[in-house]
Amino acid sequence: MTEHPTPDQWLSLSAAADRLGVHPTTLRRWSDNGDITTMLTPGGHRRYLISDLDKFSQTRRSVMGSNQVAAEWADRALQTTRQEIVSRRDENWLSSFDNGTRDSNRRLGQQLLGLTMQYIGAPEKEQPSLMSQAHAIGRQYGEMAYESGLPLTEALQATLFFRDLLIETALQLPENMPVKPQANIRLMRKINQLLNAIQLQIAEVYDGSSSDILYRG
User: Fold this and answer.
1) Are 117 and 69 within 8 A, CB to CB?
2) What is the pLDDT of residues 115-166, one digit of tens each?
3) CATH class assigned to 1-54
4) Helices marked H in 7-126 — which ranges?
5) 1 and 40 Cβ atoms separated by less than 8 Å
6) For the domain 67-216, what is the CATH code?
7) How many other C-beta atoms are found inside a 10 Å radius of the C-beta of residue 42?
8) Distance between CA 126 and CA 138 in Å, rounded?
């Protein structure tokens, strides 16, 4: 009898690439860029959790299946965001966190980018669920930023940075491919909807925390 793999089973690089239907070199590049989680064995070999692979695959199918504009935007946004984060690593809203919190923020950023990709291609009935995930990400980031002593204005700089990159990437699309204005407007509107939700959650965390301090005082 053939055994079916379970979600918590680990796969080698070649087996994981086969599951995603890509070349191992492509999967290795995605791993190096932080797009997909990987574990290194004591011998230096990569291992991938099946549940992580399936989640990554679902996100890419959502984006690639939506339309060509969204797919092209997603590829460019990923590349631009990685480059800009490296170049701005000394800014206060990045450097003020300790290593553990910085790693948590990095994971939240990856989740947000993946969520944005899903949201721009999702049918209307799925959008409330995705928006709830955005609220959760915003609350987590707001709590970490507040506990790290980051002022609200600087905490919001992270989302402004993220929004600017995504919108700028969308604005540059017509320079490289035929994009109808209506499609680009819809893309930017969805980006703004999601980032607005994130920012409001961050502000609510700070507002609630400040109110608690005043009440206890």
Assistant:
1) no
2) 887 787 777 888 888 899 899 999 999 998 898 888 999 889 888 888 888 8
3) mainly alpha
4) 13-20, 24-32, 50-66, 68-87, 92-95, 99-121
5) no
6) 1.10.490.70
7) 5
8) 19
